[in-house]
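Protein: Lactose ABC transporter permease
Species: Paenibacillus nasutitermitis
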Amino acid sequence: MKKRIVSGKTLRNLEGSLFMLPWLLGFLAFLAFPLLFSLYMSFHNVKVLPKQMKYDYVGLQYFKSILFESSALYDIIIPFFQEAIIMIPVIIVFSLLMAILLNQKLRGRMLFRAIFFLPVIFSTGYVLTEFVNQGEGSLGFLERYELANYLDTFLGDSSWTTPIKQVLNRFVLVLWFSGVQIIIFLGGRQTISASAYESARIDGASPWEVFWKITLPAMAPFILLNLIYTVVDLFTYPFNPIMDLIGSGQGAYGYNSALVWIYFMIIIVFLSIVVLFYIKLSRNRTGARR
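Structure follows.
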């Protein structure tokens, strides 16, 4: 009988599956079951008894109460969305510019890279909470230069006034939340061939033209990756008011579970809008070049 020879592609697939297996087992054991169990609790009134937990089926009651009978979620989530819409492009643009600067051949660039990545190591929930509680999260230039009054005059009674002030007041947090994005952009920048820049310089292209026609198009996949990461990071960071709302209902397990799943779906919808907006901009840019 002839022996069957396993192809190289099959071996590579098996090798990749083996590397994924620990994560998959951990996901099934520690994340999948709690997720499904929280979904189950969202349809029940959960009571903790001395010897057991009692589940009384209530259907969609909690979902209806949160979405249609109370404004607590809307009062929090609308200003938070406005703040996120401002912070996301600021973080992406800042991270991209820093990655381009840190990619330059300068003395001590490894030290600067480490400094920008340090907040990722230390920005745990407790450390970041203490950092802001001690008054270190604000630069204070709104009050120092009376910029708040200019914003009030320029924006008037707009609902965007407060979110813009919040972002400017906590701009240090924008720097803290840019570490991973800078590393991703830095890795993406290093994938661009040096010959492309040499050819552009020989053709007489200016640095501005090089950025728009070589650097930015080549970084497009990394921009999308950072957009997704930034959205998820902002929606789960310690000062997210919705997380406080979820944690405030002590003992109301069913209600909190319903709130968590509503918030999860909101994140999915918001993330989908961001990705679709990015894809549309990319297509328009590609069509304009043609």
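Remarks: The radius of gyration is 24 Å.
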